[in-house]
């Protein structure tokens, strides 16, 4: 999650200089660019909150949040591979992070507690 947060913040910071400049397409590109920037900022906040919850070993909501984040990352990677946004290298990075993060969210957690022993009293 920490790697994803850092990469997400780098992506947000590198997006800012690509703000649509004045030109014939500015009116058409502005809503798309602003919505993409807001979505990336919200995604970074969501990942940060989940990371803090995981570090504090809070309730089961952390696992559900992490699984949801990684399922959405998998969907984003498929979108990148279809040529909607980004390059194949970005898609491969997203896919790798999604698979590793999903597996980690499922496998890492509180250890299962042993069932209580029932003693038979004579």
Task: Quickly list its features.
0% strand, 4 helices, elongated, single chain, mainly alpha, 122 residues
Brief sketch in words of this structure:
By secondary structure, the protein is mostly helical. It has helices at residues 2-15, 26-55, 61-81, 88-107.
Write a structural description:
The structure is a single chain. The chain has 122 residues and is mainly alpha-helical. The protein starts with a helix and ends in a 15-residue tail after the last helix. It has helices spanning 2-15, 26-55, 61-81, 88-107. Helix 1 runs antiparallel to helix 2 (26-55) and helix 2 (26-55) runs antiparallel to helix 3 (61-81). Helix content is 70%, strand content 0%. The chain is built from four helices and no strands. The longest helix is centred in the N-terminal third of the chain and has 30 residues, at 26-55.
Rounded mean pLDDT is 81
Q: How many strand segments?
A: 0
Give the helix level as a range of percent.
Answer: 55-70%
Helix and strand succession? Answer: HHHH
Which residues sit in consecutive blocks of at least 5 with pLDDT less than 50?
A: none
Total number of helices: 4
Task: Tell me, briefly, the overall form.
Answer: elongated
Q: How much beta, percentage-wise?
A: under 5%
Distance between the termini: 53 Å
Can you summarize the main beta sheet?
Answer: none
Report the C-alpha radius of gyration, rounded.
20 Å
Structure classification: mainly alpha
């Amino acid at each position: 999650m920490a790697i994803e947060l850092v990469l997400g913040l780098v992506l947000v910071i590198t997006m800012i200089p690509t703000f649509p400049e004045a030109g014939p397409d500015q009116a058409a590109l502005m809503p798309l660019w602003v919505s993409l920037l807001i979505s990336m900022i919200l995604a970074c906040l969501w990942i940060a909150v989940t990371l803090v919850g995981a570090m504090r070993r809070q309730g089961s909501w952390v696992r559900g949040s992490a699984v949801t984040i990684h399922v959405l990352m998998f969907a984003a990677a498929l979108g990148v591979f279809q040529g909607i946004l980004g390059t194949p290298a970005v898609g491969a990075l997203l896919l790798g992070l999604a698979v590793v993060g999903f597996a980690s969210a499922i496998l890492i957690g509180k250890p299962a507690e042993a069932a209580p022993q029932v003693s038979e009293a004579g």
